[in-house]
Amino acid sequence: MFSVADHLLHVEGEALPRDVSAAAMGGLLATGARCRAPVSGAVYGTLLNDRHALEALGDAMNALPYKAPPRAPVLYLKPRNTLAGHHARVVVPGSEGVEVGASLGVVIGRTAARVSAHEAFDYVAGYTLVADLSVPHASVYRPSVRFRARDSFCVVGPAVVARRHVADPDRLAITVNVEGGAAFHATTATSVRGVAQLLADVTDFMTLAPGDVITLGVPHGAPVVQAGARAAISIGDWAPLEIEFVAAGVAQGARA
User: Which molecular-function annotation in GO is an example for this chain (predicted)?
Assistant: First the structure.
């Protein structure tokens, strides 16, 4: 089992995560505390689960090699080396920059296999912010490991919010604020599959374990940043997830 009573966060330097109230979490974050990712299970990203992304592809979805829009979730793995937490410093590997994909992360509470949509929420422990980062690229059905699985390319947190605090995960506002730029706004309401249907479709062919995370998917039009940028990602009124982007060769560690 993976359970969350309130807000689960893992402060950098502490051996174990804390399960605290929203007020206590706010106090910790206000001190500038850095955090580790509050989860340690597998993290699965979901592609083409945003209606605007499918619309942008247009007729390309019906051409070779795809021939049709996907009939099942298109997933990819964010391996362990990609996990990072609040106040992460992420290296921008080249001139293409890094796409800051903000997504709702669904945290699994108990082993989920062949779960029906009407019972799916019984398997959810809580939700978290996931900055699903990638080097901009055009591949759709075959996500490239070198574009999506670089070190610290999956920033999670600051906390896992208990399921009881989220009345409707399919109606949440998403915002990406890049320092010095215009804010990017999206919503989970544009998802092709909502949380329950996504869990039902995924667990029809694979088992999700307690502590695993599956993202609802990155909204179309996510901003691209270069080294020197700072970004804050928020969902609803949750505490924002903050990231600093640095040039290759810059020492990683404490914030500048």
Answer: 5-oxopent-3-ene-1,2,5-tricarboxylate decarboxylase activity
